[in-house]
Write a structure and sequence with these properties.
Largest sheet: none
Mean pLDDT: 81
CATH architecture: Orthogonal Bundle
Strand content: under 5%
Radius of gyration: 24 Å
CATH topology: MetI-like fold
Number of helices: 14
Number of strands: 0
Structural class: mainly alpha
Helix content: over 70%
CATH class: Mainly Alpha
Low-confidence stretches: 295-299
Shape: globular
């Protein structure tokens, strides 16, 4: 039976979680409502949960003027996210499984080298020179896939901890006795028992690839047809800002600019970019929580 102190603790615990949830959900809700608000009403009255006038013109303007480009960018983002997530998982699992073995020679040094990359990197200019002059990924699809996102040190250490704490050593020892090698043990025992952390790392990698715009901004100079959805939306936003700043003295251009929902289109672009992640997340939330809880234990 719960004591009075337990009830008070649970009440304040739930209260804190409700507040944190609202802090996360309310801005997203306001973003979607603002994207469905009439642009003139938004400019006049500001952001509101109860707009004076509703409108889907921002979405109509985006898809009417860029429908083919947006569909292609969505396709590139989907291919990039799926391929990048699969490759990231394969590399992360193999390295994390190796680091989880206490008998691995040089395990401490290798773990430190992985951890070191969380603190320091080579810098933007040396990285750019290396990728463009040595690996020649400039203006190619590999420019979106390879730089900095194929493997993340945090994901490696998270999965390594899960292998240590979440996979029973007795089962692995039994497999050794039955004659299984390390490769078979990893694929037949460790990975099937690690679905929560795999789902967690997969989500981290997928979000990183889906939301990334920096690689396309840096490495795609001429091949704008390879833009992901984030790069395309960023380019559209820059174009609208440029029109706003450079057409104030031209009446004809000003009339055309007046038809652009410059305020609501920002919210619509954000909604287009975030919607796929919001749709997928509820299906893996259970594994995500479990993977973070067990993978966060030091091993």
């Amino acid at each position: 039976m719960k004591t009075r102190e337990d009830k008070i603790y649970n009440f304040f615990g739930h209260l804190v979680m409700v507040v944190l949830t609202l802090l996360a959900v309310v801005p997203i809700l306001l973003m979607f409502i603002s994207s469905l608000t009439d642009n003139d009403a938004l400019v006049k009255n500001g952001y509101s949960f109860f707009p004076e006038k509703w409108s889907v013109y921002a979405y109509e303007w985006i898809f009417a003027s860029n429908s083919a480009t947006i569909l292609r960018a969505y396709g590139i983002s989907i291919v990039l996210t799926v391929l990048g997530t699969v490759l990231s998982l394969l590399i992360t699992m193999c390295l994390a499984y190796g680091l989880s073995k206490k008998e691995l020679p040089g395990r401490g040094v290798l773990t430190f080298l992985v951890f070191f990359t969380m603190l320091f990197n080579g810098g933007l200019v040396p990285t750019y020179i290396n990728y463009t002059n040595v690996f020649h990924i400039k203006d190619t699809f590999w420019g979106l896939l390879v730089p900095g996102l194929l493997m993340n040190a945090f994901n490696v250490l998270l999965m390594k901890s899960y292998f240590v704490t979440g996979v029973p050593g007795e089962i692995m020892e039994a497999a050794y006795i039955d004659g299984a090698d390390e490769f078979k043990i990893m694929w037949k025992i460790a990975i099937p028992l690690s679905k929560p952390i795999i789902a967690t790392v997969a989500m981290f990698a997928a979000i990183a690839y889906w939301n990334d715009w920096n690689n396309g901004y840096i490495y795609l100079v001429k091949r704008t047809d390879l833009f992901s959805i984030q790069n395309l939306l960023n380019r559209l936003m820059q174009s609208i800002q440029a029109l706003t700043q450079n057409t104030s003295g031209l009446s004809q251009a000003g009339e055309g600019l007046a038809k652009i929902p410059s305020s609501t289109v920002r919210m619509a672009m954000a909604a287009i970019g975030i919607l796929p992640i919001m749709v997928i997340y509820p299906f893996i939330q259970k594994n995500f929580v479990k993977g973070i809880t067990l993978g966060g234990v030091k091993g």
